[in-house]
Amino acid sequence: MTLATLAGTFEALGAAWSWVIAGLVLAGAEILVPGMFLIWLGLAALTTGLATAAVPMPWQGQTLLFSGLAVALVGIATRLHRRGAAAAGASLNRADRGLIGREGVLDEPIVQGAGHIRFDDTLWRVTGPDLPAGGRVRVTGISGTVLRVEAA
Questions:
Q1: Cα dist. 139→59, 100, 112, 116 in Å?
Q2: What is the pTM of this model?
């Protein structure tokens, strides 16, 4: 299909249907190329098509409406995404945050404020009061990769 044939097809359909078809193509392309970007352009095109069907406007107005909607929708989506990512990202990939409040048994004694404990498959350095190996402790905080503990 040549570009002239495609342009002729859109002209025969009318501007409103052209925008609706373009919106559906963009929304469908989001499935093939996921990234949460094309869907907003598709929604802007669909809205432009519906607005053009309701209120006839020249192509310049249609283009301005589409551009404005695309910028607004992508901006809103970006802001919402950042807000959601900030809330979820605080503990993402931070398994150590789940250790606070957890109790365990010391693998090595805490001598002069330093020792080791094993949680699951990881050996952690700990700081806290001197305690013998096998003593029960509770994690009270984290400083880098060192757990702060107290006797349980």
A1: 65, 5, 18, 12
A2: 0.52
